[in-house]
Amino acid sequence: MNTPPHDAIPPRGEPSQPPERTGSARLRPPSRRVSGRAIGVWTLRLLFGAVLTLVVLSLLAWGASSAPWAWIPERAAENAWMLPVAYSVYALAKIAIVPSWRYRVHRWEVGADVIYTRAGWISRTWQLVPVNRLQTVDHTQGWLERVFDVATLQVQTASYAGSSTIEGLDSDEARRISEELAVRAGTLRDDAT
Amino acid sequence: MDRRHESEPNPHGAEPTDPATGGWVAPGSTPSGTARGPGQGAAEVSDPGSAPSAPAVGGAAADAPSAAEQPRSWWGEAPEGGPPAGSGARSARRLSPRSMVVGPINQLRGLLLPVLAGLVVGGFNPWLLTATGAGVVALLIGGLVTWRTFRYEVEDDRIEIRRGLIRRSRRTIPLERVRGVDVTSTLLHRMLGVAVVRIEAAAGSAGATEDGKLDAVSAAEAERLRRVLLHRRAVLTGRDAAARRGPRAADPAQGPEPGRDTSGTTEDPPGADGVADDIDDPDATVTHFTMPRSWYLYGVLSLGYLLTPFVVLATLLGMVQQSAGEVATDFFVDWVTSTDSAFLLVFGTVSVGVLVALMPLFAVVSYSLTHWGFSLRDRDGSLVAERGLFTRRSVTLEKRRIRGYELLDNPLERTRGAVGLRAIVTGLGDTATRAVLLPVGPRPRVEEVVDSALALFRGPLTRHPRAALYRRLIRAVLPFAAVAAVALAFGAVWPAAVAGVLALLGVPLAVDRYRSLGHGYDGERVSVRSGSLSRSQATVERSAVIGWTWTQTLFQRRSRLADLQVTVGAGAGGYTAQDASLEESVDFAARITPEMVRPFLAADGDEEGWADDLRGPGRGSA
């Protein structure tokens, strides 16, 4: 394995490890990707957010440069136009990169007993949720998602921290999975804590 | 839906035990109980002579066969050792008549200062006096109305609380969902021999709306309710109870329990149902812990209690400011300007010195007040923690719902090797204080109690990689160092010095934070530790782990670290091993719950990494 040197456990007194431990293992990526149409949803969602922010910023910049507010320093007022410009460059870059990147990271797998998901883009999250601990299964579809015919599946356990969300599933598949999971979760009537 | 009749005042006072109680049933009335079929049929038993009795009882009988786990006794068809159906066993009870006094007094206490101030400022003129008197009378009438209209009733499978004169409400709490019964009595309550009973019934949504509050019942009744509710619930959920207490229920000659604790005599009120009798067995109570005198001194180590004198001072000043307002301010300003400055300096120094010197004393006193006579007992499959001098709190936590425990300490407490203990309980939500099991005390003794009351984690904690130390150093030092540098660049010496000192202080903090990090598994329990100024080591049973979450940021990725969160359907919902080695933590999870993690482990060489993601679509075997 390629364990870097600093991963070694520092030899300072306390820890003495049980002998049977192997010490290292890796998770493989979940097997399934979300629907490719999810890229469209994420792109448009980012776009709308960016446009809204841009409008606000432009108004601010316009106000700062034209309104006679004395407390704004001269230099700031003169260069206020740079704010929306800089933001739009940033937003464009983000819109170009993030959705496809996220698509590559987002993966899921419903195993025999466990739901395994991976999400995020720069930071990422791997989550394991056992099916027999499910309490609720939500299948939701916003208007944008409906346009692209995708859906979001959310499973919840007794812990708020144990809730897992799969965004951008093909809507038929999401419905099928949610019904299947609901049936499987319903057959176990413990309090699932 | 609410066809309730308040027909006549009951001459017997708090406990109407009239045998002629009629009952009628309205199925499907409570929206809360969707999970339980039979419980939805809310039953209403009202005062004699007011309700049509016969026709609807069939509805309950029709509901009964759908009871899931075991044959339950509905309507007393065959209650174990209990009295027959429809008798006084399930008659609605009232609050203690003394609550008519307690409620108004408690309400009045909040208004006392403003009213007094008003009277003083208003010069006791007759109008104000009359208004005040009218207010007091109104409060008393309110207390009377509350007492008259408030009824509660423990049935076989639920407790019902009905209240309200004009806007009537009825709350039904299925006993299966009762998570705990909390008995509190303030000094006033105890002088009058009453107590407040809170029934916690949080299921998923931990909110006050789910709770049932009885304010107030007699101390004996509170004790009885606690035992009956928890016992009935245990029978309903039918895990241990049926087997353990079944035989005992057949023995009705079980004597009443001798007075047990501070809540006064605990003889059962006449007319109480038989269920209470078969569970008050003094042998079943095991005392795990009673607080030794020396432990009160640990209050000195708690920052919150150390700050008590300042809090008290601030409160006093606030009160003076509120009641006397500008007069006090003017007086103070006058006094300051007219007094000799040297004297002022000495006076100020001395008073601050006195306050600081008093800090430990105040800490111990206030700590003792809240933790007086702390005891932890084991009773009927529950842990009961009691504490408090003036306000005596008793918290009952069912052992079945305890998933683990947390050991908490701060740097001061660590110097004396002291820790506090909290339980990790399902259904308590964010009300963390209710799960306190032990006050702060020496670690060996605390661990001893944990071992006898729950089960101790006996295993080493794995240290986290060295990179975690660097991350902590960067986080604790870098921001202040940057501020110091910027301040220096702008020539601001004082801010630079302050930021520099803070940056230096960050070094030991970061080292300590790193040394706290650790996670371990002893074959049955998982333990995770983190934090410095408030360090916590959470230990949960293996079976309580209901999932795993790894989170890795860009910075963690470089040094192959990740935060591993152990998902638990109790306590805080999840406990995180911060900055653990990703590979080691995956192996850790796989050892604890192989069935959950093993299917997703990578074979050697099949590495997950950036490259895998950037290779693009098509690789995933979709």
TrEMBL record, chain A:
Pfam families: bPH_2. Residues 103-180 form the YdbS-like PH domain. InterPro entries: YdbS-like_PH. Keywords: Membrane, Transmembrane, Transmembrane helix. The chain crosses the membrane at residues 38-61, 81-98. The keyword Membrane applies. Residues 1-31 are annotated as: Disordered. PANTHER family: TRANSMEMBRANE PROTEIN-RELATED (PTHR34473:SF3), UPF0699 TRANSMEMBRANE PROTEIN YDBS (PTHR34473). This is Membrane protein YdbS with pleckstrin-like domain.
From TrEMBL, chain B:
Residues 147-227, 521-584 form the YdbS-like PH domain. The keyword Transmembrane helix applies. InterPro entries: YdbS-like_PH (IPR005182). The chain crosses the membrane at residues 100-121, 127-147, 295-321, 341-369, 476-505. It holds the Pfam family bPH_2. Residues 1-92, 240-279, 603-622 are annotated as: Disordered. This is Membrane protein. The keyword Cell division does not apply. Residues 45-68 have a biased composition (Low complexity). Keywords: Membrane, Transmembrane, Transmembrane helix.
